[in-house]
Every structure is written in structure tokens, then in C-alpha cells.
Amino acid sequence: MSATAQRTVGGRETPRQVAPADGEVRRLAQRLPDTRNVVLTYFDLDRTLAMPGEPLRPSVSSMLSLLQRGGMELGLASGWNTPYLMGVARGANLENVHIIAENGAVVRHPVSAAPHYINRRPQILNEMQEAALEKFHGRVWPQGNDINVTLKPTEGKYFSPELKDEIIKFFEEYIGKHQLHGFTVVKQHPDSVEGIPDRVGKGKGVEFVMSHPEWNRLGRALRKEEVAAVGDGPTDESMYEKVGLAIRVKNGVGKRVKVGEARVLGMVDGVIEVPTAHDALALLLDKDNRWHAQIRPSEGAAA
Q1: Residue 236 and residue 277: Cα distance in Å, rounded?
Q2: Which of 34, 89, 105, 157 is deepest in the core (most CB within 10 A)?
Q3: Closest CA to 253 of 61, 118, 91
Q4: pLDDT tens by residue, 168-211
Q5: Angstrom distance (rounded) from CA 103 to CA 99
């Protein structure tokens, strides 16, 4: 019987049939990531494990717990600061969770929570934050970050399009005026605008943890194939470059999926694309790699 995958037609996901496994597909499977090798997985939060401003659904927490009980170390990698992410982990009853906060600026040890700062906060960011708070007085508040500058709306969960455009314009003009080379403005989230200094990214945080034996239970440096990353947006791309199994969530959280029934939309530039976070979790829990059958040989040619 053929396996079923998904393709997008007219904005809707519809099943696609994939040919049964043959010699070519088996050779492809040897080049694809093996979930049995993964000992540490980092997850983005907003629009991956949860929608912005919402808690983790019980089904998501349950599947994360299954991964952890099976021996996998878990990490959260997000633009949120450390206290927020630690609260998310506690709320999901997850222990010893790796934290990459502020989109990679701060890494926290999974047991001691001791911080490692990828880059120190330059004084110019303090000045930029003060200038922004003065300009947008009463309309924004600053997330309590160690490094990055993140502004949130004071009224409602999300920014109005007009206010968000004003803030983005302010950030970009400030960057240009002060020649802040390498400075990045993260603007895809509806509830925040974030300024990130040079040499900061989630991939930098993942790279640091992989190269430091004291930051994982194996007590040695981690190989690329032993680490996975699950995300949805541009700030997750730097993680994909560092890990052996990269998964991109296309349509939010979705509904619970049984292990072995993860839907795969395809593979793009070595990144596995799935419809929902539940599909990503089901894929990671599948130690038989049944999802391999949904990858076309042409997609996995460069895997």
C-alpha cells in the first residue's frame, strides 16, 4: 500500500500518493535523518508549539513529555526572555529544559540555569530602547531582556498594523543613523518588534551547546545528527543549518497526530516540512522512521 503525503493546491492541503518503497527509496532512506539518533531537540515557541500569547495545549505537553521520558533532551529556542520560557517549561511539567532565549542572545544550562551570553549588550541598545520608549510613550513596553531590545503593545495582545509599521521604521532609521552593522529587526510576529545585535542567532546558541560536553547528559560534544530543531520562521533558519534533523511547521499547532502517522509535506533544502506541530512531535516520536516513505527521491537527493 502506498504512503500518503500532502501537497498544496489552491491554498489547500490535499493528499499526494508516494510510490511504495523500492531500491531507490531505500537508498534515499539511508541519506535521510534518523530519529533514533536524536538526543536533543530545540523547539521554537510561538506559531510552532503554541500560538502567540497562548499556553501549550495539553496534547502538545503530553507528546513533549513522551519524548523526554524516552530519553530525549528538550530545548526551547525563542525570542522570549529566560523567565518566560522557564515558566512555559514548568507549566508543561518538563524538567531540565535547555533554554535559548532572546532569539539566541542568551543560553541557559538545563540543570543549573546558569547563563551564557552569546554577545554582550552594547550601550547603543540601551540608548535605542530609551529613545523608543520616549517616542512611543504609553503605547509600548519593553520585554525584560538581557541583550536584545523587544517592544510589546500596551493595549491588546497584538500591535495595530499602523503602530507596528511606525516602530519598524523607527528601528530601521536608528540603525541607519548609528551605522549598527549586522543589526537585525525581527518583525514577523504580531505581538512584538525586536532588535537583535550582530553575531546573535538561535544557531549560535545551538552551536555553543553542541560543543560543550557539560551542557548535555552524554557528557561529550554532540554530533550534528544527534540534534534536531523545529521551527516556523526566519529566526529558526540558523538552527536548521547546525542540526541533522530540521523540521519546519507550516500551519501552526493543529490537532493531535498518532505516532507513525505524521504527515510530511516534503523536503526543501534539507528541511522537512510538516503541516502542524503535532506532526513534528509524532515524527520525532517515530523510531521506525515511517515518515521516510513520504519523501520523494528528488526531494531528498541532497539530504
Answers
A1: 14
A2: 105
A3: 61
A4: 999 999 999 998 888 889 888 889 999 988 778 999 999 999 99
A5: 10
